[in-house]
Design a protein that fits this description.
Rossmann fold; alpha/beta; globular; 7-stranded mixed beta sheet; 7 helices
Length: 196
C-alpha cells in the first residue's frame, strides 16, 4: 500500500489538500533549527525534505538561508509544490529507498518517516544515513500519538525511535516538541541526530 506511487498520488488528485497538509510550514521548522544550529548545522548547507508534499517546509527552510531539495514519491505532490512555489527550491520526484540521492548536509523529516510502514523503519533509517554526508543531520518530528486514527501516519514510541536512530546516528536531542501546530500539540517529539 504505502510503497505504491499511486497510493500517495491519490491524496493529491484534483489539487486536493491531504489531511496532513496545514497549508503552511510546520512551526517545528523554527524549533528544530533552534536546536540544530548550535550543534553545527549552518545556513547555506544542503538540506532535503523527503515526503515534502506541497513543499511548505522546504520553502520555509530556504527562507532561513539553506539550499533545499523538496522530494516526494508522488508526482502530483511535486507538481503542486512547483505550482505553489516555482523554483525557490529544487523539486525532485524520486523514491527515497531505491534512488541514488544526495549527499546532503541535513534531512528535515516531518511526515515521511512516520508515513512508512513500521516494518520499513530500519531500511528508512539506513537510507537517511546513505543520503547524508558524514556528520550530516537527521532532523525528525515524529508522532507518539495518532489519536487512534488509521495509519499513516504511524506513531512510534520515543525509545524505539532512539534505538533505530542510534544504529546509524548519534542522538543529540530527543524530547517532546514545544511548538507543534495546535492540531498536533502534545503528540509530537523532535529528534536531532548526527550521522556517525
Amino acid at each position: 500500500m504505502t510503497t505504491q506511487r499511486d497510493y500517495w498520488n491519490r491524496f493529491y488528485e484534483d489539487a486536493a489538500r491531504p489531511v496532513w497538509d496545514m497549508d503552511r510550514a510546520t512551526p517545528l521548522v523554527a524549533e528544530v533549527l533552534d536546536l540544530a544550529l548550535p550543534l553545527g548545522l549552518r545556513p547555506g548547507c544542503d538540506l532535503v525534505v523527503p515526503g515534502c508534499g506541497y513543499g511548505h517546509d522546504a520553502v520555509e527552510l530556504e527562507g532561513h538561508g539553506f539550499s533545499v531539495t523538496g522530494l516526494d514519491f508522488a508526482p502530483l505532490a511535486i507538481q503542486g509544490a512547483m505550482h505553489r512555489y516555482g523554483d525557490r527550491v529544487t523539486w525532485s520526484q524520486a523514491d527515497w529507498f531505491t534512488t541514488h540521492l544526495g549527499p546532503w548536509d541535513g534531512i528535515f523529516d516531518h511526515t515521511c518517516f512516520v508515513a512508512m510502514d513500521p516494518v520499513r523503519r530500519p531500511a528508512y533509517v539506513d537510507a537517511c544515513a546513505e543520503h547524508l554526508r558524514p556528520g550530516g543531520f537527521w532532523l525528525v518530528a515524529a508522532f507518539h500519538d495518532v489519536q487512534g486514527r488509521p495509519a499513516p501516519p504511524h506513531e512510534i514510541p520515543m525509545a524505539e525511535l532512539r534505538r533505530l536512530a542510534e544504529a546509524r546516528f548519534e542522538a543529540l536531542h530527543l524530547a517532546e516538541a514545544q511548538q507543534s501546530h495546535p492540531r498536533r500539540a502534545g503528540r509530537e517529539y523532535l529528534l536531532v541526530a548526527r550521522r556517525r
